[in-house]
Design goal:
By secondary structure, the protein is of the alpha+beta class. The protein contains five helices and 18 strands.
């Protein structure tokens, strides 16, 4: 349409040049026609000779960082054409003569497929524009950013100074002084020593519950808080994690198991509650608290990015 508008303007100048008459207007009209034809030839030649390749730099990124796309372009030397790539609904990023790296903000966790990117070829004045596609569909995984907010596991034992007599036993000679319960002596109950309860067995258990969460933002909150809790516990010696739909808990105790769990949290969705946890170590249940603000709505996905079909909690 821009080329047509330029030709219409050139025709109007030619008509004015004949009506006046004016040689200068006629020369200007002819120059505009030549410029439009040159721009059209440049864009057509660039489209025919362009070789464009695209690749995804990282297949896994946290949700607070953009997905980076690398483009490699090959165009005839000294051809006055420019190439742009669409990164938003109405935003285009310019590429250099050899290509470059473009950031594509997704801003939400999940599995996505980046379709072939749309490139726009134009002359330097922007008179003519043509569109081509570059790249093959590629999948990326946007990981939830670990954050705090989960309740800490219940304490492993009560404070020594608040231990009631049923947690005591009569003093036995030779008991270390540190275990004597002086408060019972002060109460007139005689000399007692503290009776230590056996420590709980098993690793701390994190139960992730998304049942009833119909809003994706609530599931996002659960995924982020669960990631933060599991990451903290994994660095403190490990934990077990029970995701929605799982019959048994997965153990997270090193970097490899943490990364596997982090990927599963990236595709966490609203599902039925997990199987009841077995008694053992302290348990933390992570669910979206009623009344908590969901925050702003999720931003729209960039063009040429669509959700990928994956299991919401599958291994």
């Amino acid at each position: 349409m821009r080329g047509v508008a330029w030709l219409v303007c050139a025709g109007a100048l030619a008509f004015a040049a004949g009506a006046l008459p004016s040689l200068a207007l006629f020369a200007l009209s002819a120059g505009m026609v030549i410029m439009v034809l040159g721009a059209a030839g440049t864009v057509l030649l660039a489209r025919a000779r362009l070789r464009a390749e695209r690749s995804v730099v990282e297949r896994e990124v946290p949700e607070d960082l953009p997905v980076r796309l690398r483009f490699e372009l090959r165009l005839p030397a000294r051809l006055p054409a420019r190439v742009q790539v669409r990164v938003a609904r109405r935003a285009w990023a310019a590429l250099g003569e050899d290509g470059g790296v473009v950031e594509l903000p997704i801003d939400r966790r999940g599995a996505f497929r980046v379709e072939a990117s749309r490139l726009r070829i134009s002359d330097t004045l922007g008179i003519f524009r043509l569109h081509v596609r570059a790249g093959e569909p590629e999948e990326v995984l946007v990981l939830p950013v670990p954050e705090g907010g989960a309740h800490s596991p219940p304490a492993r034992g009560r404070s020594n100074e608040h231990t009631e007599p049923d947690g005591l036993r009569p003093y036995v000679p030779g008991t270390p002084v540190s275990r004597i319960h002086w408060l019972s002596l002060a109460r007139g109950r005689g000399l007692h020593e503290r009776r230590s309860a056996p420590p709980p067995t098993g690793l701390p258990l994190v139960v992730v519950d998304t049942s009833g969460d119909t809003d994706p933002r609530a599931v996002d909150w659960v995924a982020r808080v669960a990631a933060g809790e599991v990451l903290r516990l994994s660095r403190d010696g490990g934990c077990s994690v029970l995701l929605p739909g799982d019959a048994t808990a997965a153990t997270v105790s090193d970097e490899e198991s943490w990364r596997a769990l982090h990927r599963r949290l990236a595709v966490l969705d609203a599902r039925t509650a997990s199987a009841p946890p077995r008694p053992g170590g302290p348990t933390t249940v992570i669910r979206f608290p009623a009344g908590l603000s969901l925050g702003p709505p999720q931003p729209p996905l960039p063009p040429d990015v669509v959700p990928a079909r994956r299991g919401g909690g599958g291994r």
